[in-house]
Design goal:
Largest sheet: 9 strands, mixed
Order of helices and strands: EEHEHEHEHEHEEEEHEHH
Shape: globular
Strand order of the largest sheet: 9-8-7-10-6-1-4-5-11
Number of strands: 11
Number of domains: 1
Helix content: 25-40%
Length: 255
């Protein structure tokens, strides 16, 4: 079995407040770029499946040359090989076309694993779009993988407040959530090994894919206005303070 994890390089969420609107518009960010946090759970899921049910975990990303660093992080966590599909302009549908083309190009992928969403786009469209391009079934909200074999992939999904068990014949696309498990830390030895790996770079032409022009265009980048917050203390006996608090909440239209 081969599990292919689709990851994206995104801004470090701790540094998101430092992003300037003009940087977001151009895509040239001066802050640190990391593996999308949701995708770290996807890496963990693939590594668990490889350990528990046999096979190997591979990783792939669509992006610019800098995305190689994200791929090296996945290798350091335990993935066996990595591939970069170079394209910095595609939207979610275009990325799905490239990922599906890469799966067909590899030819031996049984399970595609993705995170629930990305911290920059937040659309959650890619796993469903990849499945649509491949004509594979897709299972979203995967919290636990119960079994993987050539005949069936059995998982536990979270749907609202409920959980249910689903079994499907591979190949399949799985979109996992954080309940799948905490991502493991890379070891120092694996970090050193990953730094020396030569990662192949493919293009749309290599995959025989025509990337559709983006249909989603972000035209306005701005930060929300600063909130004018203040603190008000109410002194006096408890009943008077409570009454004053209620009057203040009514004035602010909170109640």
């Amino acid at each position: 079995m081969r599990y292919l994890v689709c990851i994206k390089q995104t801004p470090d969420t701790a540094e998101l407040p430092k992003v300037k609107p003009e940087e977001a518009a151009s895509g040239e960010l001066s802050i640190q770029q990391v593996v999308n946090p949701w995708d770290e759970h996807a890496i963990e899921a693939a590594l668990q499946m490889a350990e528990n049910f046999g096979g190997l975990a591979s990783v792939i990303s669509v992006g610019g040359e800098k995305a190689i660093e994200a791929l090296r992080s996945a290798l350091a966590m335990g993935c066996k090989d990595a591939t970069l599909v170079e394209n910095a302009d595609a939207d979610a549908w275009g990325v799905a076309a490239l990922l599906a083309g890469a799966v067909n190009h590899m030819g031996d992928v049984n399970v595609v694993v993705t995170g629930q969403m990305t911290v920059d786009g937040n659309s959650g469209m890619v796993p469903v779009a990849v499945a649509r391009k491949l004509d594979w079934p897709v299972l979203t909200g995967v919290a636990k993988v119960l079994n993987v074999s050539e005949d069936a992939v059995e998982v536990e999904r979270v749907v609202g407040q409920a959980r249910h068990t689903v079994k499907v014949k591979p190949p399949v696309v799985l979109s996992v959530i954080k309940e799948i498990g905490e991502p493991r830390y890379p070891t120092f030895i694996n970090i050193r090994k990953a730094a020396r790996v030569k990662i192949p770079v493919l293009s749309a032409d290599d995959l025989g894919v025509t990337v559709p022009p983006p249909v989603v265009h972000l035209s306005n980048f701005r930060k929300p206005p600063a909130r004018d917050a203040h603190v008000q203390l109410f002194d006096g006996p408890a009943d008077e303070a409570a009454g004053a608090l209620i009057d203040a909440l009514l004035a602010e239209k909170v109640l």
